[in-house]
Write a structure and sequence with these properties.
single chain; alpha/beta; Rossmann fold; 2 domains; 6-stranded parallel beta sheet; 9 helices; methionine biosynthesis
């Protein structure tokens, strides 16, 4: 087994971004909206804050109570949409049950969509728009895979996810690199049996140890997007220990997809800031 070190790759990208930011007279701005007091959300927001400050991005956090209404949050989004000091806006997920994340994400100006899941930006990316970029999560996953094999032409990739919103842009990004992709949304036991034939497996189902070495070919690349917290600590969707006697390359949890997603989120903010300056 080989561990794919997402933290090391993310640190390299953050150093490159810090150099870009230092080369300019003004700084990018990122606003994050945090609703409620979800422990995992607070951890992720703090990771983004530290990474943003390291790079030199101005970080703005807007907190809302668990019972916040659409009106409360929409008012802040509308204000941030017009604030020239803010280049990127992110709504930290998950949200309390009374709030529709898709409606609030769509409220963000698509030109300030920090994580890349605004419906207008997804539509542009899926339509092969040359100026469109993949969501930060997708870019991070693709970079992890390419760190193991730079040529994806003809490789087979399986995506085990709970959401087509995530699966569609990831499939598009992999196909642009020449991979042949099969998506298993809400994978069944029969679907899991098919995974042993794939060169690349990406799993994001939110179930601890959903997959093990018995499901995966001996030399595959496995990207574990899962993040599950229980009394034993944090774990992914893959039982990493089961791969010790294999040639599989696998991302750890934590230290794999998470830091890469944060790094590419901040890359998107830096890119948007530079584009905004050019348009002035």
């Amino acid at each position: 087994m080989k561990i794919i070190d997402g933290q090391l790759l993310a640190d390299t990208l953050k150093n490159e971004l810090a150099q870009r930011v230092r080369a300019n007279s003004d700084r990018p701005g990122l606003a994050i909206l945090l609703v409620g007091d979800n422990e995992g959300s607070r951890v992720y927001v703090n990771l983004k804050k530290r990474a943003a400050e390291y790079i030199g991005i101005d970080f703005h956090l807007y907190k809302f109570p668990e019972d916040a209404t659409y009106a409360d949050i929409e008012q802040t989004i509308d204000w941030l949409n017009t604030d020239d000091q803010i280049d990127g806006i992110l709504i930290q997920l998950p949200l309390p049950k009374q709030l529709d994340e898709n409606a609030l994400i769509a409220r963000i100006a698509h030109t300030k969509d920090a994580d890349g899941f605004h419906p207008a930006n997804i539509k542009k990316f899926l339509s092969h728009d040359q100026n469109a970029s993949a969501p930060a999560l997708v870019q991070g996953i693709l970079a992890l895979i390419i760190s193991e094999t730079s040529d994806l032409q003809g490789m087979t990739a399986a995506l085990c996810t709970n959401s087509s919103i995530f699966a569609l842009p990831l499939a598009e990004a992999l196909e642009q690199q020449g991979a042949r992709v099969t998506s298993f949304v809400q994978a069944t036991q029969e679907d899991i049996k098919k995974l042993s034939s794939f060169d690349i497996v990406v799993v994001a189902v939110g179930k601890k140890y959903f997959l093990s070495s018995s499901n995966i070919k001996n030399d595959a690349i496995v990207i574990d997007v899962g993040y599950n917290r229980d009394a034993e600590g944090v774990s992914g969707d893959v039982n990493t220990d089961s791969f010790h006697d294999t040639h599989v390359a696998i991302t750890p949890v934590p230290g794999g997809v998470g830091p890469m997603t944060v790094a590419y989120l901040l890359k998107r903010v830096t890119d948007m800031h530079e584009e905004n300056k050019q348009s002035l």
